[in-house]
Design a protein that fits this description.
Blueprint: H1 6-9, H2 14-19, E1 23-30, H3 35-47, E2 50-56, H4 65-71, H5 74-77, E3 80-83, H6 86-95, E4 99-103, E5 110-111, E6 123-128, H7 136-139, E7 144-147, H8 159-182
Parallel strand pairs: 1-2, 1-6, 2-3, 4-6, 4-7, 5-7
Length: 184
């Protein structure tokens, strides 16, 4: 067995990426402090062709050397915007027809892998601060919450790890929904 070279992978250029179809998913970062976490979310969002990242509150924005370290250029390919207030961002997304889910352990959370998200409209996921999670005032505006099943002693994951897991699962569900409905 031999690893593929970059050329053999046939990756698209940044320009081709910008023009390509994206999955109807927006990632909202609610006061995420770590520049490395922000960069990792950009890189994962590029990998799954997420349509947009909303950077809110104290979440840093590109260009920044520390974000670039982990984003590896994805901060240039993935569309993003800055919003001073996360709640206002979530409200705007809801007004535009998005179903908004907080990634939190909460009452009546949907469990990833066991429950399905509603994929007949665009989706936004809100990932919170590394210490406090998603703000309670933002939770109240969400249509629901998504919980990543965990079986160890810890009750949370690093925000960039949680983002990767949730983006992966939602992208699978969105792609399946589109595949099923294109066949009709």
């Amino acid at each position: 067995m031999k690893k593929l070279t970059t050329e053999e992978m046939g990756r698209m250029s940044v320009e081709e990426f910008r023009e390509s179809e994206k999955i109807p998913l927006t990632v909202v970062l609610d006061n995420v402090r770590s520049l490395n976490n922000i960069g990792s979310v950009f890189r994962t969002s590029d990998a799954f062709r997420v349509e947009h990242i909303a950077l809110c509150g104290i979440t840093a924005t590109p260009p920044h050397r520390e974000i670039h370290k982990t984003a590896l250029g994805a901060e240039v390919s993935v569309e993003w915007s800055y919003h001073e207030d996360t709640a206002a961002c979530v409200q705007e997304l809801r007004e535009r027809g998005y179903r908004v889910y907080a990634v939190e352990i909460a009452h009546n959370s949907l469990r990833l892998g066991a429950d399905s998200v509603d994929t007949d409209s665009p989706i936004a996921i809100v990932l919170g601060n590394e210490i406090d999670g998603v703000q309670e005032s933002v939770m109240e505006l969400c249509d629901g919450s998504l919980e990543i099943p965990q079986y160890g002693t810890k009750h949370s994951l690093n925000v960039s790890c949680a983002a990767a897991i949730v983006i992966w699962e939602i992208s699978k569900q969105i792609c399946q929904w589109h595949s099923d409905n294109e066949m009709k």
